[in-house]
């Protein structure tokens, strides 16, 4: 009895995901579906890590508050006028869209890299949830410098969380969206409560007191880099570079009724990447005043960033629940995206099982705390790697006719490897990554130049090579 039911479930899941065909009108969704998903995904696990990490980078009040305001606005505009605009015109997953341009062989490598990087990001969020589950067990929390798991309790908790998250993600987009809509109000309320309680614990009774918490900034903690105003602006813009200018969220917005649904990302940016980041930073500011944190600093070490204990210290059991759900709502859609990437490599495998594969990789990554503890650097790197590929789609969509370049060239010419795409991405990545290494430039400063360079070179190479 169980085998036929599982097979039927797999077939139904695959048929409603439209992996290799445009989403039909009957499956288009209103803006409300995306509002909950983006609010839930971005007022989530990463926020409990990123807020405190800004403090470890020594940001000032102006740099943090105004820098986040501008950077998040640029992210919303990127989603609305690039990602959503292209998504509703074609209604294809990122991976099938790229296959039409690049050819199957070339896009396979990209899909593998994309899927694995998304798994690592989801793993970091499983790590975040695990810090909350570990609080009742008095579990030792990972430190900022930790790479390996610190005990068997940690491993068991991560595996249990990863299993549940993977099963939910494997149910498909509808389930992911419903889970986000249910959880996001709880998480948003928790962040707000954490921020208010932390302000009271810090003795802040006016806007000046709030501003003075960061003041003029400070020296970065040991092992961290100093963040300036432009670090904050560009990092917050490109924290989700793979999703917006990198076009990964074509896979999400292909379900939208129109491109205006792209504005719903503002809920994620200004509730999550603004209010929640600041609230989480306040939690860490409270912890830094404790004797334990001062002892770490006195020994020349960075105090640990463990979201679970920070939230528990502010709002008790509700804080633990919020951190668990926050990690969940980020990991869920991220594993879903990774599953779609793997599906493009393994088209004969059902969406259910490739998502389980993605969840398994994410769970293994979550065992190693380094992905979460080095989140600022990791997010910059994965955006830098993946975003320029999105420029291929954007520049072809908006400029192909003007430059007399054939759209979806690989599909029309039945080729498996579009050399124009490979050269454009390879050269832009190599040049700007070497610039980063040579001059010690933070990668977020080079993401946009690499993106623009890749798009322009794609048009030039295509115009020349397509004639041949």
Automatic annotation (TrEMBL):
<keyword id="KW-0812">Transmembrane</keyword>
<feature type="transmembrane region" description="Helical">
    <location>
        <begin position="267"/>
        <end position="287"/>
    </location>
</feature>
<feature type="transmembrane region" description="Helical">
    <location>
        <begin position="378"/>
        <end position="395"/>
    </location>
</feature>
<feature type="region of interest" description="Disordered">
    <location>
        <begin position="1"/>
        <end position="21"/>
    </location>
</feature>
<feature type="transmembrane region" description="Helical">
    <location>
        <begin position="182"/>
        <end position="207"/>
    </location>
</feature>
<dbReference type="GO" id="GO:0005886">
    <property type="term" value="C:plasma membrane"/>
</dbReference>
<dbReference type="InterPro" id="IPR030191">
    <property type="entry name" value="CodB"/>
</dbReference>
<feature type="transmembrane region" description="Helical">
    <location>
        <begin position="227"/>
        <end position="246"/>
    </location>
</feature>
<feature type="compositionally biased region" description="Polar residues">
    <location>
        <begin position="1"/>
        <end position="18"/>
    </location>
</feature>
<feature type="transmembrane region" description="Helical">
    <location>
        <begin position="352"/>
        <end position="372"/>
    </location>
</feature>
<feature type="transmembrane region" description="Helical">
    <location>
        <begin position="116"/>
        <end position="139"/>
    </location>
</feature>
<feature type="transmembrane region" description="Helical">
    <location>
        <begin position="310"/>
        <end position="331"/>
    </location>
</feature>
<feature type="transmembrane region" description="Helical">
    <location>
        <begin position="151"/>
        <end position="170"/>
    </location>
</feature>
<protein>
    <submittedName>
        <fullName>Membrane protein</fullName>
    </submittedName>
</protein>
<dbReference type="GO" id="GO:0015209">
    <property type="term" value="F:cytosine transmembrane transporter activity"/>
</dbReference>
<feature type="transmembrane region" description="Helical">
    <location>
        <begin position="415"/>
        <end position="435"/>
    </location>
</feature>
<keyword id="KW-0472">Membrane</keyword>
<keyword id="KW-1133">Transmembrane helix</keyword>
<feature type="transmembrane region" description="Helical">
    <location>
        <begin position="441"/>
        <end position="461"/>
    </location>
</feature>
